[in-house]
Each structure stands twice: as structure tokens, then as C-alpha cells.
């Protein structure tokens, strides 16, 4: 399972290919600018969505992108 922020998606995909796991499950998290210096509730919401996506991906039933 690869967790990566939007900004580093291209780099993560290249690293995955280079390490021989081009199809590893990946969850893309929002840009860090969306979670820095914001109210705790915003961070909680982003974290909950990320955890839900990770669980769905591990079960093989989810999308891989967080909005």
C-alpha cells in the first residue's frame, strides 16, 4: 500500500515501477496545503476519508484517489 500526497503522485509511480511493483495499491492524499494551518475538524475529515480509502483498497473494493 502506497500513501502519497497529490504533489508526489508522478514520483511515486516512477518509484513503484523502478522497484518492480507498478501495480501496487495507492491512495492519493490531498495536497498538504489543504491540511496545514486549518481547523482540527478539517484535518479529521481528511484523515477519516484517507482511512476509509485505505480500508476499501485493502478489501479490493475502493477507488484510490482522495478528493
CA radius of gyration is 13 Å
Low-confidence stretches: none
Which percent range fits the helix content?
A: 40-55%
Query: What is the ordering of alpha helices and beta strands?
Result: EHEH
For the sheet with most strands, the description reads:
2 strands, parallel
What structural category characterises the helix and strand content? alpha+beta
Description:
Strand 1, helix 1 (9-18) and strand 2 form a beta-alpha-beta unit. The chain has helices at residues 9-18, 40-59; strands at residues 2-5, 26-29. It has a two-stranded parallel sheet. With 67 residues, it is an alpha+beta fold. It has one domain (2-59). It contains 2 helices and 2 strands. The model has no long low-confidence stretch (mean pLDDT 86). The radius of gyration is 13 Å and the shape is flat. It starts with a strand and ends in an 8-residue tail after the last helix.
Q: Secondary structure elements and their pairing?
A:
Blueprint: E1 2-5, H1 9-18, E2 26-29, H2 40-59
Please provide a brief summary of the model:
The protein is of the alpha+beta class and 67 residues long.
Main features:
single chain, 67 residues, alpha+beta, two-stranded parallel sheet, 2 helices, 45% helix, 12% strand, flat
Amino acid at each position: 500500500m502506497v500513501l502519497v500526497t497529490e504533489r508526489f503522485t508522478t514520483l511515486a509511480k516512477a518509484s513503484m515501477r523502478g522497484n518492480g511493483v507498478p501495480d501496487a495499491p495507492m491512495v492519493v492524499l490531498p495536497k498538504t496545503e489543504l491540511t496545514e494551518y486549518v481547523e482540527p475538524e478539517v484535518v479529521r475529515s481528511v484523515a477519516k476519508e484517507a482511512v476509509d480509502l485505505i480500508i476499501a483498497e485493502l478489501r479490493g473494493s475502493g477507488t484510490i484517489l482522495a478528493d
